[in-house]
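Before the break, one more example. Copy the sequence into your notebook; we will annotate it together after we see the structure.
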Amino acid sequence: MIAVGTSGWQYADWRGRFYPAGRPQRLWLEYYAEAFATVEVNNAFYRLPERATFADWRTRTPADFLIAVKMSRYLTHIRRLREPAGPVARFLDRAAGLGDRLGPVLLQLPPTLRGDAGALDAVLREFPAGVRVAVEPRHASWWTTEVRDVLAARNAALCWADRLGRPVTPLWRTATFGYLRLHEGGAKPWPRYGRRAIDSWLARIHESYPGGDDVFVYFNNDHGGAAVADAAAFARRSRHLGLAVTRAPGR
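Here is what the structure looks like once it is written out:
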């Protein structure tokens, strides 16, 4: 099943483009969760919400809704993966408020952090087996056999990433699930994704996950509501090609 959504839901310029003009912002999550079945929460990277906030999101969303959460930068950017036990435990304690709404946890690494398979393994070891973890390295030194082996041994997904319609990561399958982030399309108006780019990514997903395993797809090109439009287009193309996909606007 392809689970498609956007990276966040609280963008002011989505008012009138996605959210009805008269709908208060405090009710945007409910509206979003009626349209999509998943969202990626980026603000946890900057400031980890309290457990009560996660629990509130759980009560406001339907039973089939999943929330992917970006790991706090305290572990990835400040500690730079060192001494992970405390930060991971704190994160998991807070995110437990989501209960069964918790989707994958995303570890986005700093672009200046060089590959270190041992440090990555130490971090992944702190996550319980039932928690799905995706890792988005952003330095080319991570593309090694050792790193790939660590990800596979821990059933952690290499986060595929795109800019301007092209992969910026290897297309390794390292886990029983997949994770794709689309940061910036090359179509007009900027930063939209065109049909060719969407079809290319769907072909890659189908080739790597032919058995219908879960693949989480998040559009991060939020400017001007592009992410909402592209996520909906991605879902439409998925259905057209006979691929199972979660709900999206315009179904």
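The chain has one domain: 2-240. The radius of gyration is 17 Å. Try to locate both features in your own notes.
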